[in-house]
Structures are given as C-alpha cells and as structure tokens.
Amino acid sequence: MKQIITQHGWGLNKYFWDDYKVDFLNNNWHWQDNERGYFSKNNYQAKWIKSESKKEIRMTLCHSFGFHLMQKNILKEATHIVLINSFNNFLPLSNKRNFILRSLKRMETKIIKDEPKDMLKEFIHRSFMPNHMNNSFKNIFYKSLESLNKTLLLSDLKQLYINRDFPVSLRKDCKIIFIKSENDLILDNESNNNFLDSLNKKLDRKPILIKLAQQGHCLKNLNLYEILLNTLND
User: Fold this and answer.
1) 92, 95, 141, 177: least surrounded by Cβ within 10 Å?
2) Any idea where the domains of the chain sit in the sequence?
3) What is the distance between the alpha carbons of residues 103 and 100, in angstroms, rounded to a whole number?
4) pTM attached to this predicted model
C-alpha cells in the first residue's frame, strides 16, 4: 500500500496540496491532508492506515513549519519524509537573526491589532515569488480569510522564535527527501542549510537533496509526483 499524509505550513491550509495530489491519486496512492485550522475551527489529524503489505510506503509531505506541526508518531512510522523548504530553527544564528525577528514581530503586531488579512495576503504573495499564486488556490485562500482563527495564527507564529534541539527520533531506514527552492524569500538560506546539516550528522541514512530553480517558498507549476517517483526508484 502507498499512502501519504501531508502537513501544510503556517498561514496556509490543506488546499495548498490540491494541485499535487491529482497525480498521486491517479497512480493509486491513498492521500490524506492534515488541517491545522487557521481558517476554521475544523482541524484534522490523519492516521496511517494499517496494512499487511510488505512493500508498504508511508510518506509524509511537510511544507515549512509543517514539519513541526506533523504528529510525532506519524513521523516515527513514516518510511519516507519529504521536507519542502523546511527548518528546525526558523531564526538563523547570524546577524540576519535580528532583522528576521523584527519582521516576525511586525506580523505579530498586525494580528494583535486585528489587521491580519493584508499581512497574510502579502506573506502568501511573497511565498510564491518569483512565481504568481495559483488562481484556484488564490480564490480559496482569499475566501478563507473571512473565517480566520487569529488566536491560533498568533500562537503558532510565536513558535518560530523558539530554538529547538534536534527533532523527534525517526526510523533508522527512513528515507528523507530534502527539497530546497533556490529563490525562497521567506525561509533564510542559513536556517534551511543548518537543518540539512543536522540531518546529515544525526541520521545514518543521508537525506536526498533536491534543489529547485525558479521556485519560491511555495512551489508552483511543478510535477511533484515525477520528482518523488525518481527518488523512490533509487
């Protein structure tokens, strides 16, 4: 059995994955989306479907902060973990740290002052650069802003300030695919590289690094199925 559980990042929802899931569903994958609930009170956490198959694939797709939102037991039982523009610590250690921290504080202030909609629109716009936001996702996203869960949005934003130790224990034979956009305007390159370095040092099985040109923090016009299929066949 081939199954996937996804986790979107901060300020997004499960519809982020809609363009990617079609190819997987057409190739007999079972797909489930976690929903954090930034735009509704309906959060959802998927569970692995039990299977007796000896060639079972349990793959997680985590975007950005989604790695920290994904349930630890789901990660522990995954045979494959795909990390898309992800991090352990969002804030870098270099002198850029204070600049990024001030940006986060400005976002925090806009949520507290009840001005989150324009801030989120700008954030998502920058997340897709150098590409434009997908129209179908844009329509859903803008409509979702009307039912914003500001309390959750704020509390999760504050999680980005935290310095974390190396994350949860993973299966020793787990295959990690580390996808890195080369034009990411949201995640600092140092923070992304530090996470990759930690994975390389801590894990017996080194991550597979995939660099994507002309892609931003959120991916667009990409056949994720083909990219990942190549790693499964390695």
Assistant:
1) 95
2) 2-93+158-232
3) 5
4) 0.96
pLDDT of residue 165: 81
Q: Any bridge partners for residue 44, and if so which?
A: 35
pLDDT of residue 119: 94
Residue pair 57/232 in contact (Cβ under 8 Å)? The answer is yes
DSSP state of 206: P
- Residue 222 is given by DSSP the state -
What's the CA angle centered on 129, arms 21 and 102, to 5 degrees?
Answer: 115
Q: List, in order, residues 6 or more apart from 165 with CB less than 8 Å away.
A: none
- Mean pLDDT of successive 10-residue segments in the chain (234 residues)? 97 94 96 96 93 89 98 96 97 92 96 92 96 89 91 96 80 92 98 95 92 96 92 76
Phi, psi of 169 (to 5 degrees): -70, 145
Computed from CA positions of residues 210, 214, 218, 223, in that sequence, does the dihedral angle turn out positive or negative? negative
Contacts within 8 Å (CB) and 24+ apart, 42-45: 44/14, 45/71
Cα 132 to Cα 7, 17, 85, 126, 140: the distances in Å are 22, 16, 18, 9, 15
**Nearest to residue 91, comparing CAs of 178, 194, 177, 184?**
194
Handedness of CA 29, 68, 176, 125 (dihedral sign): positive
Q: Does domain 2-93+158-232 have CATH number 3.40.50.1820?
A: yes
Please tell me the distance from the alpha carbon of residue 157 to that of residue 10, in angstroms, as a whole number.
Answer: 7
CA–CA dist 91, 165 (Å, integer): 13
Amino acid at site 39 = F
Q: Could you tell me the two tokens for 38?
A: 């930034």
